[in-house]
Amino acid sequence: MQKITAYEIINHGYDNSQYFQGCGTYGTEYNEVFTGIGNNAKEAYEDAVEQIYSMPYDTESIEKIIPIRPKGIRIKDKVPATYTKDDESDCYWYVSIRVKVESV
User: Fold this and answer.
1) 67 CB contacts (<8 Å, ≥6 apart)?
2) pTM value?
3) For 62-77, how does the pLDDT look when each residue is reduced to its tens digit (9 = 90+)?
């Protein structure tokens, strides 16, 4: 069984999906990263959290560590309307969660 012992939230903001650089763990204390996308920061954060829950980690450790309403993640932070008018717009908001996972 693996459990999450630490986390870091990165609110990247909005970007075109073709240009988003992604997020990694190199040079950090973390060994996993999950990046969520959405029309706003809250949606993107919830997408990243959903990805964490899909992993075979101890659910109790996720519930203890990962916040439900983290500071700085707001629904007001969203992709500007000028970028979402077009149905073919590839602009999304990105939020990553880096986690430190340890075996129990």
Assistant:
1) none
2) 0.93
3) 999 999 999 999 999 9
3-state secondary structure the chain: CEEEEEEEEEEEEEEECCCCCCCCCCCCCCCEEEEEEECEHHHHHHHHHHHHHCCCECHHHHHHHCCCCCCCCCCCCECCHHHHCCCCCCEEEEEEEEEEEEEC
How far apart are alpha carbons 73 and 47 in whole angstroms?
Answer: 13
CB-side neighbour CA atoms (13 Å) of 69: 2
How many other CB atoms are found less than 10 A from the CB of residue 75?
11
Query: DSSP class of residue 3?
Result: E
Confidence of residue 87 (pLDDT cuts 50, 70, 90): low
Mean pLDDT, the chain, rounded, equals: 94
